[in-house]
Amino acid sequence: MGNFLIVLPTVERPDAASAVFRAGVERAEPLLGLVPNDGRRADWFEAASFSRFNGTGSPIASDDATGSWLATLGVWFHADGFATGEEGRLLGRYLRDGARSLALSLDGSYVAVVADGRTREVSVITDIIGNSHCYWRSTERGLAISGSALLLASLEDFHLDAIAYQEFIATGIIYEDRTLFREVRKFGPGAITRFAAGELKPKVERYWSPASVDAESLGGKDATRRVWEELSLAARRISKRFPRIVCDLTGGYDSRFSAAAYHAAGVRLAATVSGPPNSGDVRVSKGLAKMAGFEHLYLEAPTGIAAQQLRNALRLTDGEYELVEYSRIEWVHETLAARFDASANGCLGEVARGNWWEILMPHVGARQPLDARMVAGKRYVAKPYDGSVFRAGEKVDLVEHFAGVVSRTTADLAGSTNTMQLDATYILMRMQSWQGRIASSTNRIWPAVTMFLFRPVLETLLSVRARDRANSNLVRRILAEYAPDWADYPLESGFPAAPMTLGNFWRFAPMVNFYGKKVAAKLLKGAVWGTPGWMPAERMRLWGREEIRGLLNPNDMRVAGVFDAGGLAEFLRRGQLADFAFDEEWGRILSLEITLRTLEQNGSRLVL
After folding, report:
1. Start and end residues for every CATH 3.60.20.10 domain found in the chain
2. Calpha distance 204→193 (Å, rounded)
3. Which of 29, 36, 311, 435 has the fewest CB atoms within 10 Å, i.e. is most exposed?
4. Fold topology of 212-353+421-508
5. Backbone φ and ψ of 488, nearest 5°
């Protein structure tokens, strides 16, 4: 389904929860564009489900014999071969086997909420990395659970979370269990969170983490064979449920790796790409699609975004993704959803390539503690931002803050390799919080899948030795052995996606220029801060709209209540100039302002 709202009453005020539930259902339409497609009610819960924008999404499944029910978000696949759309069977497995067994049998990006009528306990199961986002809010009138943090924030007045909004404005991503709203928390990854009847205090059981993987246990030909077998199986499981798939296909490794696996498994799919028409991504995507016999769709979102489009994007993102950028993503997915069953992508394929491991040089794969502060500075606060908009007394040292997040994320990996620890931060911080926010937003439009979120695929990749994965060697060897045409075709950078040999080393000449440019970009960091691409021009176009200028009047902005007044006014003054270094931060401030005003218009007040 596209979303749900569940409210559990307190023992002290059992009747008050109904008012919270009614308010949520009534606000779902103006806030999210949703009306319920199903509902359930008893003296210990009230629940409503909502379809995706394309009309798909299963209603709530029920078991009359026990009074139990189940609701899901996202896309799930059961190890026994059934999948999203068969929630009745899923509920039956829970009633037979319990929550932990059920969780360990599921793959995909999903949330499953089960209300057990036998015990009146509600269990929330998240996928292994928490890619599908789900939230809860506890009030004196009851506890509410939803796939929308924005909807939960609207139920009563709220505070902004000082750490979360600084994470968002500075980096564009909110981490751990935080949301923009202090009262709304996100369920964690790979977990079963239980709420006992009337108590409403969460009890969390982690059923999966990277620590459960036998790191460094797989290598050589066994590694290439095992990874390819798991990818092929995942491709067939996905295509069985979604026969008409459109797959992202760009000039890099990850989408190529994914598309090659679908192609080898006999899956007929279409390929799509966005970006400037003369870009390497578009050129390579068209060439690969022609080689494979895929239908190819080049989609470039129109420019000239209006305020209403930003408000439409808010319905999907809860204000936790920059609205100018997501409005373009929304246009692409709404266009594709008219023709296909689901969107497939290569997200998490980076794990196969040892992504980010270059910061561990020259000790890649060593069994030593990860330098959390180094990782924070080089990967989580890597881009400059203008901190003058934050109040001096509330400003967070983000490098120190993210060092703490890295340490907490890797706490159960003591004694493991530094590559496994870095993979854990990439999976459970970066991908869960950033890509998961995109995936959760897109799922409100239509189903979105990645084969790398199948547990057998991800665990197999994490078990491969560091020396086999480093420098994209694993992906190169797999493509060369099982999909040689895909390995031979040049990447965006100009050299092939195959291992270098005596017979083809001359084809890697473009590598010198490619990595030379990357080194130069790092050396120039701090001197060239402007945002490449379409955003600077879009910012100037938005300033030309009267409604946007009104939203960004510092004397009347809702964010002014928590920001530094002088710093905000000066930032917005400079943001009207063509030569401006912080386009993305400007877009995030605009996004937060639209979020706060929308909540205010729907009766929920920001408490200062």
Report:
1. 3-161+180-208
2. 4
3. 29
4. Rossmann fold (3.40.50)
5. -75, -30
